[in-house]
Amino acid sequence: MTALLQMEGVRKTYATGAIEVEALRGVDLAIDEGDFVAIVGPSGSGKSTLMHIIGCLDVPTAGRYALGGEDVSHMSEAQLADVRNRRIGFVFQQFNLLTSMTAQRNVELPLMYAGISRADRAERAREALERVGLGDRVHHRPGELSGGQQQRVSVARALVTNPTVILADEPTGNLDSVSTRDVLALFHELHAAGRTIVLITHEAEVAAEAHRVVRIIDGLLTEDEPEQVAS
Ligand SMILES: Nc1ncnc2c1ncn2[C@@H]1O[C@H](COP(=O)(O)OP(=O)(O)O)[C@@H](O)[C@H]1O
Ligand SMILES: [Mg+2]
To answer: How confident is the model at residue 227 (pLDDT cuts 50, 70, 90)?
Structure first.
């Protein structure tokens, strides 16, 4: 049995001038299809580094990482970009929407990279926006939307390609409590529909929403809390 996402002995060292930082110091992690996992840890513990590797934005310095049975640890930039586009939907704390484009165009972007035709892109983007409750905001630009709505646009952008995994780094970090509930409810809905969700956060209340909690401290994972491990 291979997990959807499997890491063994993953290390990441950043070299900045004479100083080396070991951001990940031997991480073993297996996530199954359909899991809803929160990765929690304090600032500087290595969460974003781990997210970049999970999301194929970066490769480990040492160790092995396989996603959907494909070993991605030694892939080139172009190969990684292809895996990312096929398998990962990203949600970031800062939304990362293009401010000059409408919600629909923002959601269409990953489909453009995937070479989908204009008409199909428009239709799928509108469907994704309806899915996140923004069917009446498709022509709004980010500046004309609230923070919570902007994050819902970025969730629509994450799911429009039908990714294997939705990977969110501090997705509620810039939201008020109402919008936080809103976005978390959306993740629950996507999980119930069969998506695998990996949510990275430093907020305990947000982590409590997941079915499984993994803690990262100083570049190392600690055991999941047994009572929160999904059966
Ligand atoms: N690009 C980088 N170059 C050098 N050091 C980095 C880089 N990114 C992160 N680090 C260092 O690696 C450690 C983990 O950082 P990060 O993964 O961003 O943690 P978190 O997301 O939990 O706050 C920190 O000590 C940070 O300073
Ligand atoms: Mg971070």
So the answer is: low
